[in-house]
Amino acid sequence: MSTPITFSRRNFIRTSSIASGGLLIGFNLLQSCKPKVVAEPEIDLASLDYQDFNAFIKIADNGAVTIFSPNPEIGQGVKTSMPMIIAEELDVAWDMVHVEQGVLDTKNYTRQLAGGSQSIRTGWDALRKTGATAKQMLVNAAAARWGVDASECSVSEGIITNAAGAQLGYGELVAEAAAMEVPEDVVLKEPKDYKIIGTDVGNVDIDKITSGKPLFGMDYKAEGMVYASVLRPPAFGQELVSFDASEAKAIPGVIDVITIGDKARSYLEKGGNWTVRLSTSDKVVVLANSTWEAFKGKKAIKATWTAATPLESTELHDKKLLELLDGNKFQTLRSDGNVKKAFAQADEVLERTYESPFLPHNCMEPMNFYADITDDKIHLVGPIQTPEFAAIAVADLLERDVEDIHLEMTRMGGGFGRRLYSDFVLEASEISDKIKKPVKMVSSREDDMTTGVYRPAIKYRIAAAVKGGKITGYHLKEAAINGNMYGLIPNFFPAGAIENYQVDAANYQSNITVGAWRAPYTNFLAFAEQSFFDELAEMISVDPIQLRLDLLQNVKGTTDERIQYSAERMEDVIKLAVEKSDWGNKPEGTYQGFVSYYCHNTHVAEVADVVIENGQPVVKKVTCAVDCGILVNRLGALNQIEGGVVDGTGHAMYGDFAFNDGKPEAQNFDRYRLIRMKEAPLVETHFVKNTIAPTGLGEPTLPPAGGAIANAIKAATGNRLQNQPFSKYPELLRAPKKEIIG
Amino acid sequence: MPTYTVTVNGKSQTVDASEDTPMLWVLRDHLNMVGTKFGCGIAQCGACTIHLDGNAVRSCQLTIAQVSDKEITTIEGLSEDGSHPVQQAWKEVDVPQCGYCQAGQMMTASAFLNKNANPDETDIKNAMHGNICRCGSYNRIYKAVAIAADKMNS
Asked: CATH for B85-153, among 3.90.198.10, 1.10.150.120, 3.90.550.10, 3.40.1260.20?
């Protein structure tokens, strides 16, 4: 049906006919995101096989446009913002656009992944070219019909106008456009001409969300489906010895009790892939007619476990990580100049240690997945941030061809990095493969919180050498459970700004599974470093913001390609935050703390305002200055920024997750405190306006929040917080007695 | 398994379920009304909030045997066409990020506003305290509740 043709750097697909007899045209664009574009003449939309033609723009003969959004939606807003970019260049009115979620389609898309705040940054060029190419083909079709040159035609909101004033709508041209050559080069709009990009566009799923329509993996149902609840080892390190399912099987609605694990073990022996975090233990699976019956059945299983590897505790981890910081088993990730010499020659040295616990992701929608494994096909549906890698993992697990897999991504009730890992997809698949029935695996909150993939517990030791009032050396050491820092992180600020600079990392290998957690690698690092800068400024009697600005001067003009933050863009957000937060001019009783930070390609400065209420510091407001380049969807951007700040505030204040005998102390929200409305600061956002290509916002405002708050709490109470969560140190969260304030 | 008759969004429905089945799962698995969400199962997060005779309750803690002849309203029944002032306000403010907790937030807000038509900031924050939004959309939820209050008064 389709003939791929190599075409410049693009793959071109022309489809001359489809099952319903219409004419379709599609082409795939470029590296990061390659949607097909389909002009669709006189076809009943409902008659199309969407699974065959998933990755495209569809234009109906009435001019209505359907855009398939390629990337998974976890609440970061790409299901709205990515189609906006296509619609802008296609030049259609946004209210004519209908958006649908694309399925996993590795032939037509790449990087169908939600992670790293990268969807918009890496999709920007391809999404624009997709829209612009379709527009040009429609214009060429109009020009051909009129017998004029395409350059004489202009377009606005799906209407093409020629020099004589004649007009044609996109819908009238779809058949002819389909026969046009695909233009190799297209002209993209100038930012000043944008009509959709930069405006306030509401969430495309808002009507469904506000009326309770099925959207999420949890909501997915299929004919003949059974529910599965999985009993996993209650402690990390344990494995199943035996179990008694007689009581569980007696519960009405429980269909059967089985075990899984053989396939998982064989697969793990072959190495898995980076999304796989699986226990080697057998697991007991209760199959039932409903979720509740499956949960009840799981509780009724009497299982015996053995410790295959030692059961670990937070006490042990604290000891091991501090030993690592004191020792010399580091891997050096960046080294400039001679740190040892700088410290030996220093007039003054500041050294501080910062500590953080594990953190669970706690997506509001617990882990779940639907799998229907038959000899002919593998049908998977559910919430996954890495559909491509999950599909590969399932194919390898079941020793099947990845081509057999049809994977549909549902809207996700949060991701935060947890759904990068495919353990629940693999479990659902192993169950369905074993029972030869469609199955929906559903985790309870307790399952979710206690068998997670956690942000590792991390400790930092940071030291600075000062000579003649200047910072001459900076040495950061990280000790983390199973490792944390990697890639370009050691090259973040103040790398490049201090002559003698070194970043070292060490890790303690634990049997507790860890992984990416919103703003991985920096979500605690930013707090540690930005708290340290303030303390350093105090030691050398420099204004804390001036200290950062002075250091930034040293980075200007750097030729070090590892340094991706921009001193100039950082200065811009700092200046904007100072101005908009009324820095230094607050009335008595309001205390401010400052952070400027770069991560996930976005520059951010935040100022926290803290007041004392009932003798305790309370975060009232956080002012954010953000440079994310061109704003794609202002309304969505503001939501991400607000959410990042509130999330960063909540976990810095309350996020605590300790282990005893391999088990998390908290199993549900009664013992794990998440931030609530009363505790959330008001977030006020200001954007640096420029026309630089856009960067993501799902993560960058989270890491600075904790540091800004800690710096403000220091101003309010005189107490310096070095460990998270702050709520664990009530003695530091007290206003000083009057005489100390002076 | 016993048979129960429950009235959900004005419609009488018959369900075969064991007596300890929470209404959350009756709604989701038996009646195929999946708007009411499972978050924690222990009344800590508010995602499963529904109205029982107009009061906001956690459906994960309400068994089908306890419902008897009381009227249940879910997010699907807040209005027929998305026109309830709370729904309008949620759309106006564009509250959701992931959206999973929002049905529960809206059911808490709508029951609260029915009882307190002129809430101040503290009233709203107290009323919404039992509902967690993991994405941290609290600024917008607050704003939407305040706007919905105005709408209900006008």
From this structure: 1.10.150.120
Identify the DSSP state of B2: -
Per-residue pLDDT tens over the stretch A438-447: 999 999 999 9
The fold for domain B3-77 equals Ubiquitin-like (UB roll) (3.10.20)
Q: What is the 3-state secondary structure (H, E, C) of A91-125?
A: CCCHHHEEEEECCCCCCCCCCCCCCCCCHHHHHHH
Question: Which residues in chain B have Cβ-Cβ distances shorter than 8 Å to A206?
Answer: 90-91, 94, 96
Q: In Å, what is the CA distance from A318 to each residue of A322, A357, A481, A653, A674?
A: 6, 9, 10, 20, 23
- Nearest-angstrom CA–CA distance, A485 and A259: 37
Its CATH class, for the domain covering A221-309+361-450, is: alpha beta
Radius of gyration of chain A (CA): 28
The average confidence (pLDDT) of chain B is 97
pTM, whole model, 2 decimals?
A: 0.94
Q: Hey, are the CB atoms on A639 and B94 less than 8 Å from each other?
A: yes
What CA–CA distance (Å, rounded) separates A237 from A663? 9
User: Between A634-654 and A702-717, two packed helices, what is the crossing angle to 10 degrees?
Assistant: 50
Alpha carbon A673 to its chain's center: 22
DSSP per residue over B16-43, as a string?
Answer: E--TT-BHHHIIIIIS--TTSPPS-SSS
SS (H, E, C) A628-674: CCCCCEHHHHHHHHHHHHHHHHHHHHHCCCCEECCEECCCCCCCCCC
Of A227, A292, A411, the CB nearest to B99: A411
Nearest Cα neighbor of B147 from B96, B85, B79 is B85
For residue A718, what are the CA distances in angstroms to A464, A583, A726, A732, A735? 22, 18, 14, 9, 8
pLDDT at A47 over 60: no
B91, closest residue in chain A (CA to CA) = A206
Mutate to test the interface with B, among A74, A200, A203, A211 (most CBs of B within 10 A): A211
Q: What is the residue type of A568?
A: E
Q: What is the pLDDT of residue A738?
A: 60
ipTM attached to this prediction: 0.99
- Residues of chain B with Cβ-Cβ distance to A415 below 8 Å are 98
- pLDDT tens column, A368-422: 999 999 999 999 999 999 999 999 999 999 999 999 999 999 999 999 999 999 9
Interface of A with B in 622-651 (CB under 8 A): 635-636, 639-640, 642-647, 650
* pLDDT-above-90 percentage for chain A: 81
Same fold, B3-77 and B85-153: no
Cross-chain residue pair A669–B44, CB shorter than 8 Å: yes
B33 with A212: Cβ contact below 8 A: yes
A473 to chain B, any CB pair closer than 8 A? The answer is no
More confident site: A736 or A621: A621
| Matching CATH number, A9-211, of 3.60.15.10, 3.30.365.10, 3.40.50.2300, 3.30.1490.180 | 3.30.365.10
Condensed to tens digits (0 to 9), the pLDDT of residues A294-341 reads 999 999 999 999 999 999 999 999 999 999 999 999 999 999 999 999
Q: Cis omega (within 30 of 0) on the bond before A700? A: no
Q: Are strands A470-481 and A458-467 parallel, antiparallel or unpaired?
A: antiparallel
Cα–Cα distance list, A666 to A358, A445, A446, A523 (Å): 12, 11, 9, 21
Q: Which of B8, B37, B100, B131 to mutate to test binding with chain A, by most A CBs within 10 Å of its CB?
A: B100
Place of tokens 């030049």: A91
Q: Look at residue A10 and tell me whether its pLDDT is greater than 70.
A: no
Spatial separation of the C-alpha atoms in residues A57 and A166, rounded to whole Å: 26
Reported as a pLDDT band with limits 50, 70 and 90, residue A622 is: very high
Hey, is the C-beta of B142 within 8 angstroms of any chain A C-beta?
Answer: yes
